[in-house]
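W.,

You were right to be curious about this one. When I first looked at the sequence I had no strong expectations either way, so I just let the prediction run and decided to look at it fresh. Below is the sequence, 78 residues in total, followed by the output.
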Amino acid sequence: MKLIAVNTQEKYDALMKVLDMEGYAWFESESKPSEINNWENHKEETVIVINTTMILQHQKRAYFENVCPNVKIENYEV
């Protein structure tokens, strides 16, 4: 499991394009990453969970800091 923080819409969009090309999909809908703008849910607190199952999830940074304190949250850079 990899946790990636995207604190701007630009970073979110760039990461979603990369994840589209790698074949990932959203857990909730099985849609391509770029088809749904989940950044709006948590804005600058958005963290994307990248699993080996090719399924993506998202949540607020504070959630992962509490639930997975030993997993490093990487800041995505464009």
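Here's what jumped out at me. The longest strand covers residues 55-60. And, maybe more interesting for your project: DSSP finds three helices and five strands in the chain.

Coffee later to discuss?

I.
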